[in-house]
């Protein structure tokens, strides 16, 4: 795990624990033993520590925080090992490449010097997995780079690149990519330099005089940006101790706060989410194929059909990954509007310093435009992103099938439509797949890849690998109405509207949702995306119903015996489309304004509605609102597993965290359900089903019932699901 060798008077410690040199107990023990050996070796004058492979050290092994910890051969804890390194009379140089994160940066700060390659990144991302830097990071970083930057890095968990780390004083020098050679050369040059000023724990905290202001600004930022998370607060509290207490006493506080966090349910949930996100690309369709049995096709060029918000966002996601894109529209005006949208967004990135003008120019140089499918004969992959209309999508896919080479993969960015029906318009259904992006597509990390009945494993592998390449978290799901995310969402939005019928007001429902940690309420989000979108889809459904001989009554509260709320349609008929018209479930100062106000007109509309339908309005408790919004959603997650639409609970959680703003610190709806207790969820579902028998989303899932009895850990649910399919 840690190799020791000597080159002349330089001891070289190589940490070797693939894939990221995480600090396991054996790595920690290995570092301690090698440092002891170097200290005792009279031929050694200086020590270099570096990492084998792609990273220096990416932090403590996250498995160790909740799982079984290996027993240690040496008694010293990581903070003690680092103190031992810092106390060494022989200089120690950290030679950093790849990343030095978490415990990795803490080890580097226990060294007397830090050098790094230009592309190296450093950071204290512990907060993102619900803990804090427990090996002196909260105390050494403010001494090294100042209180303000340390508070920022530790409370947000963001990584910074070597040039910024150099500016902040976290590293001493940027060197060439031959990191070991550079480390040895640097070490030789510092052999005789005094170490006194190099032991970070002995230095004063920089910016201490501004502590009060910096700490209150950090807390204010956490309240705004990381609402509901306990780790950022404790991280700030730990850093603040560096101002109040001598180093050793502050270290005791750090250990105390670390224990609070590491045993918290938020930390466990965030660590579960960390591994779930890394599991998602490793798709598996039980009995069919999996990521390690199939090779993806290499996508060198792509096309996007439709230059609206979605299409341009997808084009940018591809361009950002250096994939040349042909953007296709039906007329010049739409095409020009789309290109302008892309140009403006890149110009914005340049203004914000996220891109240089040259980078933006290069990305745009990979964008071609066309009004004809004839220009798509050589592309490897096409992503259709026109509005949700089956007839239109089928027409496009038939044309693409004729225009594109036989090996090209044809993707539809549908959020709800039947992939098999879309594929039926082609002679290559094996190459057709759904790629459901989320708005804005260049930013949102989720990519829901929907396999049809005939989609080939190679096509699944290709879009999964493309997803990773463009920086997304790709999740494979099966084909059903609205797939995983929107199918579960449907239960939540329906129930939110039923609550309005029975006595709640939009802001009351939204505040329960936001208190739980979802950043935006159900009605706020409906106003933001526009009520007319759902209305258009529903009108298509009503037309279909009418064609099948069933008359649709606009006031009907039931469709095919299933409870339904016409409230959304009523609002649309009044021109209340949401923010864009200045009124929806809320009122806005003017069309396009962002701040929602409670609207007395809506309150009256709801009261009249309830009266008309003989519903006695009542005060609905926050607990009931919570259960009625979230329990059917969770139950639908179990039904999705039961139907084989998702194969693992982790995938559902990744979808909800990354596509719908579910608070990561609860792990996602499936993990959260397990925390609440599946038996409790099941019993509550049964209770409400009795009260609302005309809402099938209250029918408890059989899988939920069985898992509630079995009490299996969540990691075993996937296997249980596979065995039932
Ligand atoms: C009495 C009281 C005493 C108190 C004692 C306190 C003692 C505590 C002391 C110290 C505590 C330190 C806390 C930490 O250090 S926590 C860890 C901090 N580090 C991180 O959070 C980094 C997480 N990793 C990443 O950000 C990325 O993985 C990155 C390193 C940037 C690489 O990214 P990428 O190239 O995209 O690769 P993947 O993310 O897919 O990762 C590749 C595989 O590596 C696994 N991995 C990554 N990091 C870790 C880790 N820290 N621990 C375990 N495993 C890790 C990841 O799961 C992938 O695995 P697989 O291929 O199987 O999917």
Helix content: 40-55%
> How many helical stretches?
30
Instruction: Please name the fourth-level CATH homologous superfamily of the largest domain.
Output: 2-enoyl-CoA Hydratase, Chain A, domain 1
At the first level of CATH, the class of the largest domain is Alpha Beta
Strand content: 5-15%
GO molecular function, one term: (3S)-3-hydroxyacyl-CoA dehydrogenase (NAD+) activity
Keywords: Fatty acid metabolism, Isomerase, Lipid metabolism, Lyase, Multifunctional enzyme, NAD, Oxidoreductase, Peroxisome
EC number: 1.1.1.35, 4.2.1.17, 5.3.3.8
Organism: Owenia fusiformis
Structure description:
The radius of gyration is 28 Å and the shape is globular. It has an eight-stranded mixed beta sheet, with helices on both faces. The protein is built from 30 helices and 21 strands. 49% of the residues lie in helices and 12% in strands. With 725 residues, the protein is an alpha/beta fold. The longest helix has 21 residues, at 622-642. Helix 12 packs across helix 26 and helix 20 crosses helix 25. The protein folds into three domains: 2-262, 2-enoyl-CoA Hydratase, Chain A, domain 1 (Alpha-Beta Complex); 292-477, 3-Layer(aba) Sandwich (Rossmann fold), CATH 3.40.50; 485-724, N-(1-d-carboxylethyl)-l-norvaline Dehydrogenase, domain 2, CATH 1.10.1040.50. Bound molecules: ligand L434P2JQ. Ligand L434P2JQ binds next to helix 3, strand 5, helix 11 and helix 12. Keywords: Fatty acid metabolism, Isomerase, Lipid metabolism, Lyase, Multifunctional enzyme, NAD, Oxidoreductase, Peroxisome. This is Peroxisomal bifunctional enzyme. It catalyses: a (3Z)-enoyl-CoA = a 4-saturated (2E)-enoyl-CoA; (3S)-hydroxyhexadecanoyl-CoA + NAD(+) = 3-oxohexadecanoyl-CoA + NADH + H(+); (3E)-decenoyl-CoA = (2E)-decenoyl-CoA; (3E)-hexenoyl-CoA = (2E)-hexenoyl-CoA.
């Amino acid at each position: 795990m840690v190799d020791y060798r000597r080159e002349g008077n330089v001891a070289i410690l190589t940490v070797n624990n693939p894939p990221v040199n995480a600090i396991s107990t054996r790595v920690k023990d290995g570092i301690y033993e090698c440092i002891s050996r170097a200290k005792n070796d009279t031929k050694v004058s200086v020590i270099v520590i570096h990492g084998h492979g792609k990273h220096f050290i990416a932090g403590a092994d996250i498995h160790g925080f909740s799982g079984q910890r290996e027993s240690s051969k040496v008694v010293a804890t990581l903070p003690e090992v680092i103190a031992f390194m810092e106390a060494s009379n022989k200089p120690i140089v950290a030679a950093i490449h790849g990343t030095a994160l978490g415990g990795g940066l803490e080890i580097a700060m226990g060294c007397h010097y830090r050098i790094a390659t230009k592309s190296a990144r450093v950071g204290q991302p512990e907060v993102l997995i619900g803990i804090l830097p427990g090996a002196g990071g909260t105390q050494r970083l403010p001494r090294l780079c100042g209180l303000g930057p340390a508070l920022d890095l530790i409370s947000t968990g963001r990584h910074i690149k070597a040039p910024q780390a150099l500016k902040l004083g976290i590293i001493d020098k940027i060197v060439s990519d031959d990191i070991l050679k550079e480390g040895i050369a640097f070490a030789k040059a510092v052999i005789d330099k005094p170490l006194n000023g190099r032991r970070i724990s002995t230095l004063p905290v920089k910016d201490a005089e501004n502590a009060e202001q910096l700490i209150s600004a950090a807390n204010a930022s956490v309240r705004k940006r990381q609402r509901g998370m306990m780790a950022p607060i404790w991280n700030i509290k730990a850093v603040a101790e560096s101002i109040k207490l001598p180093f050793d006493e502050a270290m005791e506080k750090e250990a105390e706060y670390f224990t609070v966090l590491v045993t918290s349910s938020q930390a466990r949930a965030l660590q579960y989410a960390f591994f779930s996100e890394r599991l998602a690309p490793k798709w598996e369709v039980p009995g069919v194929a999996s990521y390690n049995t199939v090779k993806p096709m290499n996508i060198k060029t792509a096309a996007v059909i439709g230059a609206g918000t979605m299409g341009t966002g997808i084009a940018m996601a591809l361009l950002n990954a250096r994939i040349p894109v042909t953007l296709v529209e039906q007329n010049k005006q739409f095409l020009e509007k789309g290109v302008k949208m892309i140009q403006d967004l890149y110009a914005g990135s340049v203004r914000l310093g996220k891109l240089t003008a040259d980078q933006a120019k290069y990305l745009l140089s990979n964008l071609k435009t066309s009004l004809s499918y004839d220009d798509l004969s050589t592309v490897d992959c096409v992503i259709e992103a026109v509005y949700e209309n089956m007839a239109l999508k089928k027409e496009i896919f038939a044309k693409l099938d004729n225009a594109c080479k036989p090996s090209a993969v044809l993707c539809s960015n549908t959020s709800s439509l039947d992939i098999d029906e879309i594929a039926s318009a082609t002679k290559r259904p094996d190459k057709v797949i759904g790629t459901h992006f989320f708005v804005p597509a260049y930013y949102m990390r989720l990519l829901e890849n929907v396999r049809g009945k005939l989609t080939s494993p190679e096509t699944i592998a290709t879009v999964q690998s493309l997803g990773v390449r463009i920086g997304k978290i790709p999740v494979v799901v099966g084909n059903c109405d609205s797939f995983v995310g929107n199918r579960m969402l449907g239960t939540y939005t329906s129930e939110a509207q039923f609550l309005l019928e029975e006595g709640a007001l939009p802001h009351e429902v939204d505040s329960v949702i936001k208190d739980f940690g979802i950043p935006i309420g159900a009605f706020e989000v409906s106003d933001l995306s526009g009520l007319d979108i759902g209305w258009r889809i529903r009108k298509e459904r009503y037309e279909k119903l009418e064609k099948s001989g069933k008359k649709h009554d606009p006031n009907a509260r039931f469709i095919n015996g299933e409870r339904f709320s016409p409230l959304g349609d009523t609002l649309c008929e009044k021109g209340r489309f949401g923010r864009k018209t200045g009124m929806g479930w809320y009122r806005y100062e003017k069309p396009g304004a962002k701040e929602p106000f409670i609207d007395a007109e809506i309150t009256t509309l709801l009261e009249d509605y309830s009266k008309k339908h003989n519903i006695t309005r009542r005060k609905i408790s926050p607990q009931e609102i919570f259960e009625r919004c979230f329990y059917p959603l969770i139950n639908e997650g179990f039904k999705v597993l039961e139907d084989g639409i998702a194969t693992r609970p982790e995938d559902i959680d990744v979808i909800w965290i990354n596509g719908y703003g579910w608070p990561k610190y609860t792990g996602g709806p499936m993990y959260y359900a397990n925390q609440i207790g599946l038996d409790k969820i099941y019993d509550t579902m049964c209770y409400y089903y009795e009260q609302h028998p005309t809402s099938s989303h209250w029918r408890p899932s059989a899988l939920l019932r069985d898992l509630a009895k079995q009490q299996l850990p969540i990691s075993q649910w996937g296997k249980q699901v596979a065995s039932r399919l």
